Each structure stands twice: as structure tokens, then as C-alpha cells.
């Protein structure tokens, strides 16, 4: 009897953790993990932090130690692109024309950087930061020092800027919003981060666009929308990512802000699942589809999809979580708050140690702890309670989060 074949398209964190989960759940069929990059699966957080700064080696970035895939009999195929999926025939086509049959297919193709289409964008030295290879190039540029212009003050922009500054470069960040990440955070938290960057010597040009890059073969200046010219040795563009959905849409799968999947992370096509940055998944707790582009989602959704592929009951309902480290400011954010009514602060922003709560309809939709640790379970409990929370109690450090979470849970 031939063994069942599970194919995972995308050999990054989501795909690698899914493959691991299949084995740890006793699946003894074939597991093929196909990745377009030449690398074995790696995690992205070090690529804007310690690995980028040269403080840690490649081994720390890899999802699994050397030899893991061979030991687990996971067929890791790197440098290979899947070019088509035929859901009717349950087959995928590889770039060299070979086809492979599957019993279950997981699409974990992730996302790719949005490109900035302005004059000069193809000059040498206009860089993006998504892959380990991108990071290696930027690591070498940080070694060389000089001046860098960062376009976009989102997560790539702010973490890269902090690392570059820590390596002693002169850094200018250009962002179209009045405050970086203001749409996610609101003005209070966004202003805190603006000040942190300024205190570390970053030049922030806010409410400003980029009209073009100038230079002979390599970028030498960035031209802003207001007509300023900023000299630089290189530039880094971090203006968001786009889910890689082409394979799915070409195969006739439903795509709408990502590949549409249910709470089992399954598409409407039999045997085909999607997880990670690319998946727009039904979230039972929120009662809507959400797509999450952060590390923790890749870490947890891949394994959940693997269990669903094995026929286990799955209803992926984790509260989204991410973290960021910039200079000596560490933070964790839990929740999902595309809209909110007010932001409540517990602790003093001036001190750099505080918790912010985003309230929607009086309920805690998200919480972020900045240089305050071990409060994650309580913040999640406050969110899960879905009960009106008293702003004064949230703000009062004498009221413990444990007691608040307990009270709200009792009311739910
Ligand atoms: P991002 O966090 O979505 O931020 C993009 C930023 O670029 C936004 O501030 C955006 O402003 C700005 N922008 C958009 N168009 C622009 C333009 N033409 N010129 C200048 N700025 C522009 O995306 P990212 O920083 O590129 O990060 C890529 C992905 O990696 C994201 O999914 C992110 O979540 C993930 N990531 C996560 C972490 C973490 O969790 N710690 C760290 C690094 C990366 P508007 O909002 O006004 O469009």
C-alpha cells in the first residue's frame, strides 16, 4: 500500500512547524515541505534584530537544528517553486514541470514586500528586508556604516532603524503618517515610540512621502514629496507586505485579502488548507475572518493546520500576539483592535514602563505591555472575558490585573 502524501507549499516557520506537528502526532505517511528559497526554514524576528546586528549567528534563526528534517523523514525540498495546483486531480506542478500527487495540501506561501514604484527605485542600494538573503546584504551594509534612509515607519522600518542606529549609522525614517504606527496604536503610544527613536538620534520625517531615489548607478539621495533631498549610502523600504495568493487564485480557490479558510484552516477545496500570513481565517472568538502577519501566528497556525489535515478537531481561535524589541524597549501586544474608542494607560509613559489597553465598546480589545513582563495571560483573560471594564481600574496599578481579569471572567 502506498503511504499517504501530505505536501506543504512554503518552507518557512508556518510550513516547518506544520511538518513537525504531523510527525509529533504520529503521522507516518510522506511529508514533503517545498520552499522556493535555498535556505532551510528560518524565523524572521532575528532578521531585524540580533542577527541583523551581527550579534547572533544563522543557527539561531533556523526553525530546527541541523539534521532535523532527515531524522523526522520530512522531505525538505528547497530552491523549488510550486507553479500550479490542480485541486480536481489533487496534484501540484513544480517549476521544472514535474507533478506531485497529494492527499492533503497546506498552502503556507506567506507574503512578499510591497514595492515602492517611484523613479530610481531600481538603483543599487534600494533594499527590502524580508528574507535571510536580504538580511545578509543589509548586515554587510551595517558593517560598512554610513547613512541610511528608511522608507516606512512600520515594523520593518522601526526595528531596522533601531538596529542600524545601534550599529552607529546615521538614520532617517520617512513615513506618511503624522506618527509612526499611529493607525494601530493611536497617538499616545505612537508618540511614545516617536520619542524613543528621536532620543536615540533617529531623524524622523513624518507626514512625508518619497518621490524618488537619485544617484548614478547606486542610490545617493532620497527625494521627498516636499522636495527635500536626503543623502544616503543605501535605503531600506518597508511599506508593508502582500499575501502571496497567486497559486491559490489560479487554482480557483477563494481569495479575498488572503486565502479564505474556515476555523479548521481549510479551504472550500477538499484536502487543501492554508495557514500563516497568507490565510484569511475564520476566527471563532472574533466571529469574523482575520489575517495576521506576525510571527506567533505562523508559529501556532501551522501546527493547527497540521492537526486539521490529520482530521483532528480544530477551531483556531488564538488571540493574536506579537512582540517588538527596539533599543532597550521591549513590548508585547495581544489582541485585535482595528478600531477602538479609547486607550487607557496603566503606568507612566515617561518612565518607559507601562501597559496600554485599547477599549472598544468599553471592553478590552487589545493590550500592550512595554518593559513590563509576565502579564500576558492576564491581558488575554481581560480580552476573552468580553465584559465592560472600568477604565479607572485598568489604569490603577493598585488593582491587580489578576483580580480585574477574575472579576470580568466571573461576569462573562
Ligand atoms: P507594516 O508594519 O505594515 O508598515 C508599513 C509602513 O509603511 C506603514 O507605516 C505605512 O504607512 C508605511 N507606508 C506605506 N506606504 C508608504 C509609502 N509609499 N512611503 C512611505 N511609507 C509608506 O509593514 P512592514 O514594516 O513592511 O513589515 C512587513 C511585515 O512584517 C508586516 O506584516 C509586519 O507585521 C511584519 N513584521 C513584524 C514584526 C513584529 O511583529 N515585531 C517585525 C517586523 C516585521 P500607512 O499605514 O499609512 O500605509
Please name the defining characteristics of this protein.
single chain, 412 residues, alpha/beta, FAD/NAD(P)-binding domain, Enolase-like, domain 1, 5-stranded parallel β-sheet, 12 helices, 26 strands, 26% helix, binds NADP nicotinamide-adenine-dinucleotide phosphate
Write the layout of secondary structure elements.
Layout: E1 5-9, H1 13-24, E2 30-34, H2 58-61, H3 68-71, E3 74-77, E4 82-86, E5 91-94, E6 99-101, E7 104-107, E8 111-113, E9 126-128, H4 132-144, E10 147-151, H5 155-166, E11 170-175, H6 182-185, H7 187-199, E12 203-206, E13 210-214, E14 221-224, E15 229-231, E16 234-237, E17 241-243, H8 246-250, E18 259-261, E19 272-274, E20 279-283, E21 288-290, H9 295-309, E22 321-326, E23 329-335, E24 342-346, E25 354-360, E26 363-370, H10 376-385, H11 391-395, H12 401-411
Helix pairs in contact: 1-9, 10-12
The structure holds NADP nicotinamide-adenine-dinucleotide phosphate (NAP).
Amino acid at each position: 500500500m502506498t503511504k499517504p502524501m501530505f505536501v506543504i507549499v512554503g518552507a518557512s516557520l508556518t510550513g516547518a512547524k506544520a511538518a513537525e506537528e504531523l510527525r509529533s502526532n504520529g503521522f507516518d505517511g510522506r511529508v514533503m515541505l517545498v520552499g522556493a528559497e535555498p535556505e532551510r526554514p528560518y524565523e524572521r524576528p532575528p532578521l531585524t534584530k540580533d542577527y541583523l546586528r551581527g550579534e547572533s549567528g544563522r543557527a539561531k534563526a533556523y526553525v530546527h537544528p541541523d539534521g532535523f528534517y532527515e531524522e523526522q523523514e520530512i522531505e525538505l525540498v528547497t530552491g523549488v517553486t510550486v507553479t500550479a495546483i490542480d485541486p480536481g486531480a489533487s496534484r501540484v506542478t513544480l517549476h521544472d514541470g514535474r507533478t506531485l500527487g497529494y492527499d492533503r495540501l497546506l498552502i503556507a506561501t506567506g507574503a512578499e514586500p510591497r514595492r515602492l514604484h517611484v523613479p530610481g527605485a531600481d538603483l543599487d542600494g534600494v533594499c527590502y528586508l524580508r528574507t535571510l538573503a536580504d538580511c545578509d546584504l543589509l548586515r554587510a551594509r551595517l558593517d560598512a556604516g554610513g547613512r541610511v534612509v528608511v522608507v516606512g515607519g512600520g515594523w520593518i522600518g522601526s526595528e531596522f532603524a533601531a538596529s542600524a542606529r545601534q550599529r552607529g549609522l546615521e538614520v532617517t525614517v520617512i513615513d506618511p503618517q503624522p506618527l509612526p504606527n499611529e493607525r494601530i496604536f493611536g497617538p499616545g503610544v505612537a508618540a511614545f515610540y516617536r520619542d524613543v527613536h528621536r532620543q536615540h538620534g533617529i531623524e524622523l520625517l513624518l507626514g512625508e512621502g518619497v518621490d524618488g531615489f537619485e544617484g548614478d548607478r547606486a542610490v545617493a539621495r532620497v527625494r521627498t514629496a516636499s522636495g527635500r533631498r536626503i543623502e544616503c549610502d543605501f535605503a531600506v523600504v518597508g511599506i508593508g507586505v502582500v499575501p502571496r495568493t497567486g497559486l491559490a487564485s489560479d487554482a480557483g480557490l477563494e481569495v479575498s485579502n488572503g486565502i479564505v479558510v474556515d476555523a479548521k484552516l481549510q479551504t472550500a477545496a477538499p484536502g487543501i488548507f492554508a495557514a500563516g500570513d497568507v490565510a484569511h481565517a475564520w476566527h471563532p472568538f472574533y466571529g469574523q475572518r482575520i489575517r495576521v502577519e506576525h510571527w506567533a501566528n505562523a508559529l501556532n497556525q501551522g501546527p493547527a493546520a497540521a492537526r486539521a489535515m490529520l482530521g483532528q478537531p480544530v477551531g483556531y481561535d488564538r488571540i493574536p500576539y506579537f512582540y517588538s524589541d527596539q533599543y532597550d524597549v521591549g513590548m508585547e501586544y495581544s489582541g485585535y483592535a482595528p478600531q477602538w474608542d479609547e486607550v487607557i494607560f496603566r503606568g507612566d509613559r515617561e518612565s518607559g514602563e507601562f501597559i496600554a489597553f485599547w477599549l472598544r465598546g468599553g471592553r478590552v480589545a487589545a493590550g500592550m505591555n512595554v518593559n513590563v513582563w509576565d502579564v500576558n495571560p492576564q491581558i488575554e483573560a481581560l480580552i476573552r472575558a468580553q465584559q465592560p471594564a472600568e477604565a479607572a481600574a485598568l489604569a490603577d496599578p493598585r488593582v491587580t490585573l489578576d483580580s480585574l481579569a477574575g472579576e470580568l471572567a466571573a461576569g462573562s
